[in-house]
Amino acid sequence: MERVVIRISMEPHAVEAPAYQTEHAAGMDLHAAVERDVTIEPGEVVPVPTGLRLEIPPGFEGQIRGRSGLAAKHAIGVPNAPGTIDADYRGEVKVLLVNWGRAPFTVRRGERIAQLVIAPVARASLDIVTELSATARGDGGFGHTGR
């Protein structure tokens, strides 16, 4: 497993640094750095501050993913999952949370709200052509297999 060093700056309102909770966890927990409770109404999307700024090395990205417990128990998720933190972004990391449930959900200071996964990225070169190679699938799209 490749080790990547992420430099982190914690704002005064930050709660704690991200951390892996188990030996083989893919993501580090991110904590809500709200000054007071924030209620997310059903159907609402709210940016929740973490108080963190990251320096991710070139060739990597930070992915913001929802927490399964929040999704299963409260229908709280990340609407643009995974959200991307680019290697050249130095602003505060905020997590967009959406309430897909039927009841309001309150985010409290220090609550684990999302996971941060560090992943390699590839920069693609695009070659504009007039024709693509044929495949058995062709242009079969959504539901083309009948499932």
Describe this structure in a few short sentences.
With 147 residues, the protein is mostly beta strands.
Whole-number average pLDDT? 95
SSE arrangement, N to C: EEEEEHEEEEE
Give, in spatial order, the strands making up the sheet with the most strands: 1-4-8-6
Task: Specify the number of helices.
Answer: 1
Q: Unreliable runs, pLDDT <50, ≥5 residues?
A: none
Description of the structure:
By secondary structure, the protein is mostly beta strands. The chain contains one helix and ten strands; from the N terminus they run βββββαβββββ. It has one helix at 68-74; strands at 7-10, 28-31, 38-40, 45-55, 60-65, 76-77, 83-85, 92-99, 105-107, 112-120. Helices cover 5% and strands 36% of the residues. It starts with 6 loop residues before the first strand and ends in a 27-residue tail after the last strand.
How would you describe this structure in keywords?
147 residues; mainly beta; four-stranded antiparallel β-sheet; 1 helix; globular
Write the layout of secondary structure elements.
Blueprint: E1 7-10, E2 28-31, E3 38-40, E4 45-55, E5 60-65, H1 68-74, E6 76-77, E7 83-85, E8 92-99, E9 105-107, E10 112-120
Antiparallel strand pairs: 1-4, 2-10, 3-9, 4-8, 5-7, 5-10, 6-8
